[in-house]
Please model this.
Amino acid sequence: MSQLSSNESPAPSQAPGSEEKAKAGNAKKVEEEEEEVDIDLNAPETEKAALAIQGKFRRFQKRKKDPSP
Model:
């Protein structure tokens, strides 16, 4: 008869494999739920929005680097 000691697990390879399968299943669900967005990158509204976002980001970085009281 073979006996397992208290520090041996019966199947060490089962836990990581089942965990990976669950993660793969969740990834597929997320991909299916994502909606494809078609943005016209040449539109003037898109260019204005991009410039506004970039300007705010630059100001944020400047404040982060040089905090003034």
The chain has a mean pLDDT of 74. Residues 35 and 41 are 18 Å apart (CA to CA). The chain is about 60% helix and 0% strand.
